[in-house]
Fold this sequence. Notes:
With 388 residues, this protein is mainly alpha-helical. It has two domains: 2-35 and 225-362, Cytochrome Bc1 Complex, Chain D, domain 2, CATH 1.10.760.10; 54-219, Cytochrome Bc1 Complex, Chain D, domain 2 (Orthogonal Bundle), CATH 1.10.760. The protein has twelve helices and six strands. A two-stranded antiparallel sheet has the order 1-2. The protein has a two-stranded antiparallel ribbon with strand order 3-4. A two-stranded antiparallel ribbon has the order 5-6. A hairpin with a 6-residue loop joins β1 and β2. α1 packs across α10 (242-253), α2 crosses α8 and α4 crosses α8 (208-219). The chain is globular, with a radius of gyration of 22 Å.
Amino acid sequence: MAAKTTAQLTSLLASAALLVAVACQKQTTGPTPANTLAALPLTAPAPADNPSTPAKADLGRALFWDPVLSGGKDVSCASCHHPATGYADALDLAIGENGKGLGAARHFQSPNTIPFGQRNSQTVLNTAFNGLTSGGTIDPTLASMFWDGRAQSLETQALRPLSTLEEMRGHAYAEGLALDSAVARLRRIPAYATQFQAVFGGAQPVTATTLSQALACFERTLVATDSPFDQYMRGTTSALTAQQVQGMQAFVQSGCGNCHSGPMLSDYQLHVMGVADNPKNAASDTGANGTYAFRTPSLRNVALTAPYMHSGTVTSLADVLDFYDPGPGGSRSANPHVATNQRDAQFPARVTNKQAIIAFLNSLTASTYDRTVPATVPSGLPVGGNIH
């Protein structure tokens, strides 16, 4: 055992030295994240006021798949975050209320007065680690959520879709009544009343707060920590191919790691990239505080979650790399509202060895994570909503 541990330590030190050496070769686009690529922790932390328990996670799973939370009782969290599509939805912009079908086949029913979701649906996988950077610590109550970072913590994020017209609210009730209406529905379902009582206790266990805590608890079980990249960084050097190691080097050399750093391959900061707007939106998406800045997305399991960018306008990983490096002659902003010189200083100057980088990005895909689809949900409604 001691010999094996020593070998693993030697391998990790060699990997670290390699990344430091590569990072030091490029200092032209701002601070370079020397040795900030790292494996994920094996477990995700929970906030002190919402400790994880199996019973709470089971309740959260039922709620995640139950369309009773939506205004029209036809959309669940799983409608847009399904395991078959990497817990994203395979669409450029989400289709929530009045939608039918799953993944790329999802469409609005006719007649329709619901708009598309404003932005591309991000995966729920590993959101338990949101905010985790190269420092290796994370406060789950401050974890950045959404493309513009407007919410912190899974507990806060979990309730937002219920009040949003195009996501889960629809026209059933006014925005200000959405949470109370969803809670009232749950209280009328005996199975939920029993489960909430068993998990939370108290005179009235079904509240917006306990609803958010159960959903967040379940989402913290959706972790995927065994990707080839993770295995490599933990000492199994054979987990990556030679091309993937070259891609990791090119990823850092090209400056991708300036923002896509840390165990989640995200600095969780806002950056102006000049991504094209999606024409399905009635108005230009101005991002955080009208600045056209958006939060760096994690690259974890990125091969499973096309299309890409906040507007869903980039269809493949090859196209993503071309966006950052369109070839000789330099690059221009793809958004007419963002001048090229307004883009973030971290924007790469060139991207080299793109095929190897794509191979490296594929190594971020984990194979073992929870894909369970419950047979039934307590409301008795179709599991997942109108997805079949």
